[in-house]
Amino acid sequence: MDKRLQAEKAEKFRKLHHGKHLLLLPNAWDAASARILEECAHPAIATSSAAVAYSLGYPDGQRISRREMLEVVGRIARAVRIPVTADLEAGYGTTVKDMAETVKAAIDAGAIGMNLEDVTGDDESSYVALPLQVEKIRAIRETAKSLGIPFVLNARTDVYLMPIGPETTRFERTVERLRAYRDAGADCLFVPGLYDHETIAKLVKAVEAPLNILANPACPPLPELERIGVARVSAGSGIMRAAMGAVQRVGQEMLEARSCETMFAGAIPYVELQRLMTRQPS
d(Cα 27, Cα 51) in Å, to the nearest integer? Predict the structure, then answer.
């Protein structure tokens, strides 16, 4: 991708976190889903690490390689004209050098931003020490700057999602982490697993930076999240799981009811998908 255009896309994406309205960010997992979401008129899209991993036969959680993940990110970025930010889990490595290599590869793939998690495995023992996570964020920021891309870094903590540590101190530890990430250069702060209205509102005020929440049925309604100052809500793997739910329903109906009716209900017509995928890429 042309670096000037990539830098423009990054700035456009950054501004979406500071507008009057909450950024409702959908997550794609391949070129087709990306083009469909672009066609819906979303101003930007993200990738979902879980959805990409599932589509390639891996479970979620750092099982896929950086190379395989970024091959998909690159296909998506080349398939659409809008900004694409990549969910790159914990950066596919444990060192500052690994982070520099990951952000270089992400930029080469056409991404204009990324998510970075602070756990590298399946349990609390993989929680990255705060000083090291801060160094990783600084390395990502400095590397992207050296490449001339105003890369949008969404720094994530899994204190609530995993969850990590005593419930009584969860909020204070989340604030400590997120403020440190912000000061190290993160543009947006991501707290998946947090759904309580009062706690979200307190966190918005405490971190004084764009806050990202993961969409969930337990979350307050989107207009209420917007009202209390949440900057971004991500779909995560939700759209892909909705699509896989349709696959499951069709498959079951074919066997159990000897019918294909569900397959045609709500399906995008063949000619429409053909038109989308024939379009010249950006």
Answer: 9
Q: Which residue ranges form the domains of the chain, and what is each CATH number? A: 3-278 (3.20.20.60)
| Average pLDDT of the residues in 218-229 | 97
Say how many residues make up the chain: 282
Q: What is the pLDDT of residue 282?
A: 58
Contact 6, 112 (CB under 8 A): yes
Tell the burial category of 161 from Cβ atoms under 10 Å away from its Cβ (0-12, 13-18, 19+).
middle
Q: Return the structure tokens found at 210.
A: 């764009």
Is the CB of residue 177 less than 8 Å from the CB of residue 211?
A: no
What is the per-residue pLDDT across 113-124, written as a single tens digit (0 to 9) for each?
999 999 998 889
Please give the pLDDT value at position 78: 96
Alpha carbon distance 71, 270 (integer Å): 26
Beta-carbon count within 10 A of 53 CB: 23
Q: What is the dihedral of CA 175, 177, 182, 188, to 10 degrees?
A: -80
281 by DSSP, 3-state: which?
A: coil
Q: What is the largest CA-CA distance in the chain?
A: 59
The CA distance from 83 to 267, in Å, is: 27
State percent of the chain over pLDDT 90.
96
Using only C-alpha atoms, the chain has a radius of gyration, in whole angstroms, of 19
Peptide bond into 163 cis (omega under 30): yes
Residue 174 confidence class, pLDDT cut points 50, 70, 90: very high
Six-digit token pair at 94?
Answer: 């444990």
